[in-house]
Amino acid sequence: MIQENLNELRLCIQKQIGFRINNISELKMVHEAIEWNTKKKISFNTLRRFYGFLKTTTPNLNTLNTLSQFIGYENFSAYQKNS
Question: What are phi and psi of 77, to 5 degrees?
Answer without folding.
Answer: -60, -45
